[in-house]
Amino acid sequence: MPCDDLTGLRITVDNGVATLTLDHPPLNLMDGVLLPSLRGFVNRVRYDTGVRVVVFDRADPEFFSAHGDMAYLTDPEALPAVTAAATAAAIAAAPDVPVPDGMNILEAVSDEVRSLPQVTIGKIAGFARGAGNEFLMYLDMRFAAIGRSGQAQPEAVMDILPGGGGTVNMARLLGRARARALELLLGSELVDAELAERYGLVNRAVPANEIDAFVDRLARRIARLRPEVVAAIKATVETITPKIPHQAYAVENAALFSLFTDDMVASAHKQLAAGVQTREGERDLERILDTL
Amino acid sequence: MPCDDLTGLRITVDNGVATLTLDHPPLNLMDGVLLPSLRGFVNRVRYDTGVRVVVFDRADPEFFSAHGDMAYLTDPEALPAVTAAATAAAIAAAPDVPVPDGMNILEAVSDEVRSLPQVTIGKIAGFARGAGNEFLMYLDMRFAAIGRSGQAQPEAVMDILPGGGGTVNMARLLGRARARALELLLGSELVDAELAERYGLVNRAVPANEIDAFVDRLARRIARLRPEVVAAIKATVETITPKIPHQAYAVENAALFSLFTDDMVASAHKQLAAGVQTREGERDLERILDTL
Amino acid sequence: MPCDDLTGLRITVDNGVATLTLDHPPLNLMDGVLLPSLRGFVNRVRYDTGVRVVVFDRADPEFFSAHGDMAYLTDPEALPAVTAAATAAAIAAAPDVPVPDGMNILEAVSDEVRSLPQVTIGKIAGFARGAGNEFLMYLDMRFAAIGRSGQAQPEAVMDILPGGGGTVNMARLLGRARARALELLLGSELVDAELAERYGLVNRAVPANEIDAFVDRLARRIARLRPEVVAAIKATVETITPKIPHQAYAVENAALFSLFTDDMVASAHKQLAAGVQTREGERDLERILDTL
């Protein structure tokens, strides 16, 4: 699986386990570079029968991924062009895979990741906010490092919603009672590993010094299984826990676009001026947003 | 939003957050007074665009709400008249809002609260049993004070079921595996804050000396959001976690009425004689019911 | 309810609570003896109105049930005959209850247990793996003894899947996000009481020296309820948390049979040679499977 052209990603394969490391400084922003690379990877690895498990990790010890690029929100004129360019690049990264009607490109990736034949595992140490946490929610499993991880969907305070599949995936992960999904989506709070486990946002909180060995052992054990067994288990589980229907993604996408207003743009400018999307500012994002 | 006529409720509004305080001594019983007031409030606040979050609290440090009025259960002759009077009062409190076919008035309120445009938050310190806990389960989110809260549905021991939406809302909150819903509904056990969190009955158990500040901060943060954002998030989450269908409420209501028998009336009299529906008795309700 | 012919089971009834004790040395294997006995019991107790709660326990302090008999997996020639014999015996144990099309006999028992009028409670101390844990997942509630219980579905490492209702019941119990179900089904890990509670595999982890009294108290309290109340609560909860559809079981069963290959048989022989299905080997099954 040649992936040298996928900027921002480092990929190694060992004993059936592919490890994808986000390496797109300074913040692993989900932007016009990283998003097409990720979509390109997803739609190549799908056909690589030598890869049976994919682990998603990050090079930066502090940031899994800060969030989407604020450039999408700051320029009302450029917005259509910017998103169009990123979308076009992401589409070009897997041109044969159609984006379903009514879904945006981030939602399409969510759906594509969910239907991978491989088992996908997220390892969360460092901040994962916005589109970064949305990406993690697509995966089959997630493990968070105690004292090191911080997950959040700050979009509501940014005058939008998590429109890359995050609203619907949060509701799916946190259960149909929706109480905890609403709390996190509306409260825009930073969630540590222990709370993430209690709320179902991750499978389990793991001590930071054990998470690498823990995920490695699990990934290797799964990679040793007969591929037919993995396929049969995934298919059978699917009968009980079906995928998010495209229609729900379309509702989310329409809601997102309805929120692209001048107020939102003004908020985004204020947030950038206050230090959002800098390493310093991102370390304390919730406090900054609370003071604006 | 004039609410001075709503007996048993104190309502304040500050920065978009309405705080409704149950103040209906001695036990905040859900009775012919409190229920119409609550329904009246729900159907007025719905149209008050100045209110974006509603927090439900209680004046009495020991009782959020003991439960429904036992008078509904003790007099087989009066029962239809008593419930009819309470129902008529509750209907009169929002005469323009129809009660769907097959649903009782408590279930109708459940459905009405769920469809409020505002975000609703319950703060639980003190006992909330029966219809009191049923009301809490309708809300978008719930937080329980560690060492102070006690939630229970004692109806089964009272020879009925939680028929004000409680059986179906419990099953919804505690997950489709139904194991924990059946345990609490059939076991009639008092649930403390920590277990309530582990079972999903509340979002989170919060230290008793922090819960006011915690809920206040969350409510204010949500109240500052653009109303369009809140509406969009609620609508999108709804696609994944739909409301309880009216049909399920109708099944619950029919089941409730099928249990109104002479045996039930006799039990209710015995329970009243043993101290149920007194402040003293309610402090240790589970033990009293166990000994009858 | 005469049950003396049900080999491997000890049954006592006291105050409406039947206690079924698995007593089929050396490992309480789910085999051609225990499975027909269990199915026979389920389809007799259903009509015994004197029994309102059934508690499932084991005589052996170390093993609730090791798993299904490996004999089903080791002989490709004998497999149809062996399973056919066990199935025939299980069918004969309740000849009037049809096995739905496309479902195997273990899945049929799952469905039959779920539709019992009684409330069923599993008490887990000791190992419960494979078909043993599958059986526990059918029950209404489960409690695990801290420091004593160990639940696992090791089937994937045995080149099959949990085909006795276990794949679909695991997905049901652990929630529709499927993240934790996939982890346990693919990771084949031994789950202790505390993790079982956090994942929803059991209602609650209970201190080992309290579990007998805890389950006893709960069972007795439920057994004292009016049967109409229990029936009404179960039926109403069912509207929100419906049974697993037969179609999902049929998918699981077809998947299971698709995995019965020569490779699987070879694995089974290797596992038996390494000590699987001996008391010594079963105490450390996960480590043994990891080294093969």
Layout of helices and strands:
The structure is a homotrimer of 292-residue chains.
Chain A: E1 9-14, E2 17-22, H1 34-45, E3 53-58, E4 63-65, H2 71-74, H3 78-93, H4 105-114, E5 119-129, H5 131-138, E6 141-152, H6 166-174, H7 179-187, H8 193-199, E7 204-207, H9 211-223, H10 227-240, H11 246-258, H12 262-273, H13 279-282, H14 285-291
Parallel strand pairs in A: 2-3, 3-5, 4-5, 5-6, 6-7
Antiparallel strand pairs in A: 1-2
Task: Provide a concise account of the structure shown.
Three copies of one chain form a homotrimer. Chain A has 292 residues and is α/β, with parallel strands linked by helices.
What does this structure look like?
3 copies of one chain form a homotrimer. The first copy, chain A, is an alpha/beta fold. Chain A has one domain (9-210, 223-291): 2-enoyl-CoA Hydratase, Chain A, domain 1 (Alpha-Beta Complex). In chain A, 47% of the residues lie in helices and 16% in strands. Chain A has 14 helices and 7 strands. In chain A, strands 1, 2, 3, 4, 5, 6 and 7 form a 7-stranded mixed beta sheet that branches. In chain A, strand 5, helix 5 and strand 6 form a beta-alpha-beta unit. In chain A, helix 1 runs parallel beside helix 3 (78-93), helix 4 packs parallel to helix 5 and helix 5 (131-138) packs across helix 6 (166-174). The longest helix of chain A has 16 residues, at 78-93. Chain A is globular. The mean pLDDT of chain A is 93. The interface between A and C is medium-sized, with 32 and 37 residues.
